[in-house]
Amino acid sequence: MLLAIDTGNTQTVIGLFSDRELVDHWRIATVAERTSDELALMIQQFLGFHGFAFDPQVTGVVIASGVPRVTVALREMTERYFGFSALVLEPGVRTGMPVLYDEPRNVGADRIANAVGAYDLYGGPSIVVDFGTANTVDAVSEKGEYLGGAIFPGIEISLDALFARAAALRRVELVPPKNVIGKSTIEAIQSGAVYGFSGQVDAIVDRFQAELGECTVVSTGGLAELIVPFSRTVQHYEPWLTLQGLRIVYERNR
User: Which residues are catalytic?
Assistant: First the structure.
């Protein structure tokens, strides 16, 4: 079985694969100060919920990480507790996808994993929208090449900035409002977040398609489920797209 770990700046998503099937998954807060031993304990408990153990069931670990301290801890955890080295998605790892970026080394590992997963599922040309700490929109060519994309502030950090700068506004539950035209400050903030970000994504996707032609548009990420129903352009929601992309990368490097 394979453990696929996607470490973002806010959350870390862990998936357990049996061949191509994702049999379980867990989401934890990303804490850079966690040690390799603490991570091992958490993962051991998660595996135990499903009746699995480190040895002999888990035979591989693949990692995409944007937090260097967590990457180091995950490498140490894998070597100490699993007895082998983790495959970390980084420059030099075979992905099967040419990266047509001015500086390919600077593309986030999660963006590459998303592109690989989307192309495997839907072919190309395709566009991947990932709602995370930062929102990303990435393009894959018909030939399966990573073309580049756009990055803009994510929903939660945008709202954090709003509440920090506007003393009269307070945090609200991030759910669709009853009315687009908010009848209260709470509804107004919810409307701005839900319809503002869905409209922002649609505008960027429209411009991508003006350059690429008609594309398949796939969305993933922690807050995608909230926004996708209000998007005009997103066609598919794949909550575990990054993990699936990591699985494919691991298979190509075995």
Answer: 110
